[in-house]
Amino acid sequence: MGFDQRIAVVTGGGQGIGAATALDFLDKGARVAVLDLDCAPLSRKLAAHPDMAARCLRMTGDCTDATVVSAFFGQVEKDMGPVDILFNNVGQSARDRGSLFAESEEATWRFVLEVSLLTTMRASRCTAPGMKARGFGRIVNMSTDAAFAGDVGLADYAAAKMGVIGFTRSLARELAPHGVTVNAVSPGAIRTRAHDKLKPEVLKRIVADTPAGFVGSPQDVAAAVRFLASEEARFITGQTLLIDGGRWML
What we know:
single chain, about 250 residues, Rossmann fold, 7 strands
């Protein structure tokens, strides 16, 4: 799965799964561009790898701001060239604003839909036309197994991320004749900074609900993204790969 000369974009790539995927692509020879509110964690990891750092464009910015996103992709094309691979990683649940749906507020739904669905559509709109014209492209979208399990307290997040699944399938069908694949990954419990903030009893329940019996790592997701972005996955499109230790089985 060589990625020499490939240009990959990772939204929300400053830390967690996004940073792990950016580093994975860099390790395989790709040039990588990252847009995130905070790129410092990724930059600290790259400090020990100057050769990889030289191939990584990092821009601080808000993925929910259409003007920022447009400027970012313009900068990527100017400095690096046309995008071959897009990993729409950015997204999050309501977190500390989360609640049962019957007690929720519309402003929170709108935030979750914006950051977890519309960012994916926006970045894809910036890259899909060029991929289509060139006859090659890989788009991998981030969903979650919560969209399938329907976890209580995550109604807005599950709705947004199931929207990502529908968008993935429709765009995959549209772009398939042009050599562009579009797939989704749906992680379950993954050890990230946000995950580390969970209460011990919540974490214990998550592990108990996971047949594999442990929490995954960002590298587990990065490996799956790398495969879907590779030449070897050319005949896979419109699919959703759950990376959750068997919590939800299609």
